[in-house]
Automatic annotation (TrEMBL):
Belongs to the triosephosphate isomerase family. Homodimer. GO terms for biological process: gluconeogenesis; glyceraldehyde-3-phosphate biosynthetic process; glycerol catabolic process; glycolytic process. This is Triosephosphate isomerase. GO terms for molecular function: triose-phosphate isomerase activity. It comes from the Eukaryota. Coiled coil: none annotated.
Length: 259
């Protein structure tokens, strides 16, 4: 029986800083924007994913209600792997979150669905909550293959998950990432509904209701309200706008509409 969270579903906003930032940026963004944001912890969780070398300073500087998230973890837990960070090390450092399967890693580092499934398994073994990114490329959407792609990506990770309360699904259509072309609220809602129905059919109703399905792809202060008011959108994974003060506005908008 798959475990579902007994807690009320809190919305989630993640800021993925990708390979951006400097020591000065981290300090200024945290002190001037992140630590000043106002939101209700009972309604919303906020996680920030800096580059790995900035994780220690970010963790030390962020107020304790803001969580630090790894951008990636190694799929393999045993071998020596130059340049990789294992789930155990993320856990040992006191982090509770990791992004897995971001489309930039799928595209540029050739991460397959199977490799992403291994990473999800590693997160589960180390009690990390995985933000599992899925989404179709433009040519796949244009060919009418969006649901097939999402289903394949979801099917691949299913066997790795024992505890669904430690899984967040991030729907990130590849064509909307960093392009300024946000999915319309209707397109995003339709994909989120498909994902929720997949969880319902493949896991259970309770898990489908409890699992956060968040949207990523050119989220900004200008479109946050129209997206977050969609029925099946439970938060955001924000890239570019998380590097600016717009992130504070996005968090406050989500807080306003979170149940
Ligand atoms: O992880 C975040 C996503 O890739 C979205 O990035 P973006 O907001 O810059 O489009």
């Amino acid at each position: 029986m798959a475990a579902a969270s007994a807690e009320k579903k809190r919305y989630l906003v993640g800021g993925n800083w990708k390979s951006n930032g400097s020591v000065t940026f981290v300090r200024d963004m945290i002190n001037n924007v992140l630590n000043k944001m106002k939101f209700e912890e009972s309604k919303l969780e906020v996680v920030i994913a800096p580059m790995i070398i900035h994780v220690p300073s970010a963790k030390a500087m962020l107020h304790s209600h803001l969580h630090v998230c790894a951008q990636n973890i190694a799929a393999e837990g045993k071998k020596a792997q130059t340049g990789e960070v294992k789930a155990e090390q993320v856990q040992d450092f006191g982090l509770k979150w990791a992004i897995v399967g971001h489309s930039e890693r799928r595209q540029h580092y050739l991460e397959s669905n199977e490799l992403v499934a291994e990473k999800v398994k590693r997160c589960q073994e180390c009690h990390l909550t995985a933000i599992v990114c899925i989404g179709e490329r433009l040519e796949e959407r244009e060919a009418g293959q969006t649901h097939d792609v999402l289903k394949q990506q979801l099917d691949a990770v299913k066997a790795s998950v024992k505890d669904w309360s430690r899984i967040v699904i991030a729907y990130e259509p590849v064509w909307a990432i960093g392009t300024g072309k946000t999915a319309s609220p209707e397109i995003a809602q339709e994909a989120h509904e498909f994902i929720r129905k997949w969880i319902q059919g493949s896991v259970s109703d309770a898990v489908a209701n409890a699992t956060r399905i968040i949207y990523g792809g050119s989220v900004s202060d200008a479109n946050a309200e129209s997206l977050i008011t969609q029925k099946d959108i439970d938060g955001f994974l924000v890239g570019g706008a998380s590097l600016t003060e717009k992130f504070g506005t996005i968090v406050e908008t989500v807080n306003k509409f979170a149940p």
